[in-house]
C-alpha cells in the first residue's frame, strides 16, 4: 500500500504520546524528532519537512495544548491538521469554464500515465458531472499514443479527435476546438506529447497549445512512485508552461508518499486527482483530510461510503435486507454479495479504510486472500440450484462432486458451508435483537 512505512512510523510515534495526561516540551521535541525522521524516510522534500516540524512544534507547545485535559490527543489532532494543510487543505474541484467548452490540457513526462489518465478523467466527467467530453490526440511523435487514446475512446464509447502525425499539434488543437463547437462538446481534453525529460522544444510546443486553446485547467500528470523527481518535474512544468493542478498516478503502488506530501508545498498547486489503478474507473478526487486520516490510521469512512454507493446496487441491497429479515438468505445471495464487494476494489485496501483497522493485529501485513474468495465463488457456482437454496441436502457424495467440479478440495466445500451456517446463525441473533429492540421502543 502507498504510505505504508510512513503510516506505521507516524502511528507508532503518536501512539506513545496520545494517552499522556501531561506533556512537556521535551516530550514534544522527542516526538517531533521521530516525525521528522519518518517524513524524511518517506522522501518528503527537506524544506517541507523542516517547515512542517516547526509549525507542529510551535502549535504543540502552545499554552492551550499543554494545559488541556487531553494534551496527547490534542497533539495528534495538530499533526493531522497540519498534514491536511500540507496536502492542500480542502479538496480542490475542477474549474469549469463559464462559457462552453471547458478546455483541459494534460501534460507530463512519458510513462507518467497521461494518456490513461485522459481516458479516466473523461470517464469521471461524464459519470459525475454529466459532461460530453471530446478527447484530442495531440501527441504526434508517437503514433502508438494516438492509437492508445483511440482504443480508450472505443472502450469508453467516447469520441477521439485525431489527425494522424503529419500535422502540427497546434493545428490539431485548432481543428479539435472547432469540432467541439460543432458537435456541442462541453469539455475538450487535450492529450499532449510527453518526453523522457523536460526539454525546451516540448515546452515551447506546450506553450503554443496553451496560448491557442486558453485552457481552464492544465493538469500535470506525475507518477507518485518517482518521489522527489515528481516534485522537481512539477516545479519545472509550472515554471515554464504553468499548471493549475496535479494528478498523481500509481498511488495504488507502494509509493513512500513523498510526492503527495511535498508537491503542494513546493509548487503551491493542488493535487486534484489521484490514480489508483490501471482501469478506467480508477481515478479519485484527492481529499487531503481523508488522506491524512488514512496515514494516521484513523480510517476513511467517507471514501468507504462513497465507494459502496458507487458500486453497490441499491435495489439488490434492499432485496438483501428483506432476505436477512425473513431469514431466506441463500448461497446465491452470498455469491452475489461477494461479487459486489469485489467490485469495490482490492479487499485489503478497503479494510484499511476502516477506522481502527490499524489496531487489528497483523492487518497491516494482511494480504486478503483473493484466491480464497475465488475458491468460494467456484464452489458455489458448482452447486445445483437446489443445493444453493437448501444447503442441508449437501451430503458427503455431493460434497465430493462439488469439490471436483470447482477444482477445490472437500475441506474448501466444508469450510464454506460452515461459514454460511455461522453467518445465518449470526443474522438470526441480530434480527432477534432488533425485534426485541423494536418492542422495547414501543413500551410506554
Ligand atoms: P503516458 O506515456 O504518460 O501517456 O503513460 P500511459 O498512460 O501510457 O501509462 C503508462 C503506464 O502506467 C501504463 O501501463 C498504465 O496502465 C499505467 N498507469 C497509469 N496510471 C496508473 C495508475 O494510477 N496506477 C497504476 N497501477 N498504473 C497506472
Automatic annotation (TrEMBL):
Q: What is its EC number?
A: 3.6.5.4
Localization per Swiss-Prot or TrEMBL: Cytoplasm
Q: Does the keyword Ribonucleoprotein apply?
A: yes
Give UniProt keywords alphabetically: Cytoplasm, GTP-binding, Hydrolase, Nucleotide-binding, Ribonucleoprotein, RNA-binding, Signal recognition particle
Query: Which residues hold GTP?
Result: 108-115, 191-195, 249-252
This chain's function reads: Involved in targeting and insertion of nascent membrane proteins into the cytoplasmic membrane. Binds to the hydrophobic signal sequence of the ribosome-nascent chain (RNC) as it emerges from the ribosomes. The SRP-RNC complex is then targeted to the cytoplasmic membrane where it interacts with the SRP receptor FtsY.
Which PANTHER family is this protein grouped with? SIGNAL RECOGNITION PARTICLE 54K PROTEIN SRP54, SIGNAL RECOGNITION PARTICLE SUBUNIT SRP54
Name-wise, this protein is: Signal recognition particle protein
Q: Which organism is it from?
A: Sporosarcina psychrophila
